[in-house]
Amino acid sequence: MRNWNRVCCWLLVWMRLTCGWEELNLPEGHISFYLRNNPEVKQKCQEEADCPYKEQLNEDQCWGYEDFCDPQNRLNSTSCPRPSLGWTKDKASQLDMFWKSVDFGYIQERRQELKTICSPKTQEDSLLECVRHTRFCHGKNLYLDFTKPGMFAGQERFKENMFDENLRFSQDTFNKGVMGGHCDLDLGSLRAEGEHKSALQSWYAELEHFSSLPFRPIQDSHCDVIIEKPIYFMKLDAGVNMYHHFCDFVNLYATNHLNNSFSTDVYIVMWDTSTMGYTDLFSETWKAFTDYPIIRLHEYDKKRVCIRDAVFSLLPRMRFGMYYNQPVVPGCHGSSFFEAFNQHLAHRLGLIQHGPLENKIRITLLSRKTKYRNILNEDELVKAMKTVGEFEIKVVTYNRDMPFKEQIQSSYNSDIFIGMHGAGLTHLLFQPDWAVIIELYNCEDHSCYYDLARSRGIHYMTWEKQSKVIQEDEGHHPTLGAHAKFTNYEFDEGEFMRLILKAADHVRSHPKFIQGRKYRFRSGKTKQSEQTQGVRIEL
Where is the Glycosyltransferase 61 catalytic domain (predicted)? Predict the structure, then answer.
């Protein structure tokens, strides 16, 4: 297990060097968790009269993954009102499975797996520690030599450059001596973690030939570049698709918890062995994690790089990972982790919650304006919704013409969000806790957004009566032939309104919606708030 005292000492130094307590930059409801996990910072708050977090010093609640956390005090948003359909033997097992696969129990299991691969003998030595299958690793005083093109990783081919133009995740870039540190390498332990070797599932291809070096990289002056700030290495999924790119952001947030650090004074390095461009339509999101532009790995080409503190982040497509390939046990919904992710990003990106409104329910319809999965009678459905005076209707097209922050600000203020199957439904991650997501037609992909909505803890609905939807044609997949995702649809107006009214009933009756309305409009006066959806209402 990682030496958490070392981390806490570093955090205390960091706190003393920053401008003030506001540099924590965490949602108010997360402060007490941070203080409990960093006792030196907590003590500093106790000692300093100007610390604004005195009220949080004695709170007992914890995320749930900490060694000291009493299970009765762990954050818990989960409910399992329906059966597990054979996944588990009883309700307790059902709750436990959900917590371990979708909630902070996932972080706890990764923490318990952490073991040392390369051991330091002195404080100046290097360190490498990893969880099972090298899905997450942490290193100190590491050495990366990008000056060594040639024969790589046992392959019978010669490479003139370390960075291939068209191969993002080369698995033969790092031969012995290219990456390493001055430490005692447990080669057997490293070799045992290769089962998940794959580009977006583990770091094994990159660390397979990690070497025990005969020199101390920094002290013995073997570095062209010394990076003093912590670095987070990330292998990214598709930056043009919100569903896939948020696999990166969700796992980066999970990595923050594993690393017990939420500082944005860090570098993020996109681990990419190509020199190809990377289109990122959601780059605004990086501001929640770093103060600096994203660095491409090839920017270090032809240099010997030494890193004081390196984190190899959890990956976007791990087997039984967080978000993607995530086994969500039937019958449960409401992950505290995904709720915290929503709160963390809303806080860091400066989203403003204007609801609940006093006499309105805010409905957003996502209009695709693409070749496939359009709503053929969209105008008629919008007109029908507008006949209900309680509904505030907004039709949006989320594309490159609308800045991403404006998109998520809109979704953050959507009590009901409606859209066809597609990556745009990932906006459900930003909806308020009382919200409903309506996947108007799932195009025979039944579980994707249903499971994501259950993880986020909001109510999911989809089209229920197949006889009341008209498919334009059989669908035309480029290679697979007839396919439900490659055509357009027309929906029965009456059945559509039945679903919308049902969704509105859910919103109206949600405890947090009721609580938020009472708070905002008590004594007939509107209260301005940034966040009215949590247990703690912040002004």
Answer: 322-438
CB 361 within 8 A of CB 508: yes
| DSSP-derived secondary structure for 368-381 | --SSSS-BTTHHHH
Chain CA centroid to CA 412, Å: 16
What backbone torsions phi and psi does residue 438 show, to the nearest 5 degrees?
Answer: -110, 105
> What single-letter DSSP state applies at residue 286?
G
- pLDDT digit string (tens) for 382-402? 999 999 999 999 999 999 999
* Cα pseudo-dihedral 39, 40, 44, 45, rounded to 10: -20
Q: Is 20 exposed, middle or buried (0-12, 13-18, 19+ CB in 10 A)?
A: exposed
Retrieve residue 359's tokens: 């006499």
Residue pointed to by tokens 């203080």 = 35
284 is written with which tokens?
Answer: 């605004």
Phi first, then psi: give them for residue 424, nearest 5 degrees: -60, -20
pTM for the whole thing?
Answer: 0.92
Residue 80: closest CA among 63, 98, 101, 64: 98
Collapse the DSSP code of 59 into the 3-class scheme (helix H, G, I; strand E, B; otherwise coil) and give the result. Answer: coil
Instruction: Tell me which H or E stretch contains 129.
Output: strand 127-130
| Spatial distance between the Cα atoms of 158 and 150, rounded to a whole number of angstroms | 5
State how far the Cα of 437 lies from the Cα of 444, in Å rounded to an integer: 17
Return the ∠ at Cα 31 (arms to 28 and 102), rounded to 5°: 95
Question: Tokens in use for 474?
Answer: 């059989």
Q: 134-155 burial, b if ≥16 CB within 10 A, otherwise e?
A: bbbbbbbbbbbbbebeeebeee
Strand partners, 366: 396
Determine the Cα–Cα distance for residues 23 and 342; give it in Å rounded to an integer. Answer: 20
Q: Report CA 116 to chain centroid distance, whole Å.
A: 26
Residues 6+ apart with CB under 8 A from 191: none
Q: How many CB atoms within 10 Å of residue 121? A: 9
Helices (H), 121-226: 187-191, 204-207
Residue 87 has a CB neighbour count (10 Å cut-off) of 16
Write out the H or E segment, with its range, that includes residue 382.
Answer: helix 378-385
Nearest alpha carbon to residue 511 among 535, 527, 531, 528: 535
Yes or no: say if 159 and 149 are a contact pair by the CB < 8 Å rule. yes
Task: With residue 169 as reference, give the H or E element that holds it.
Answer: none
Residue indicated by tokens 């919650």? 353
Rounded distance, CA 172 to CA 169, Å? Answer: 9
Secondary structure (3-state) at 490:
strand
In the chain, the amino acid numbered 157 is R
The 10s digit of each residue's pLDDT in 320-371 is 999 999 999 999 999 999 999 999 999 999 999 999 999 999 999 999 988 9
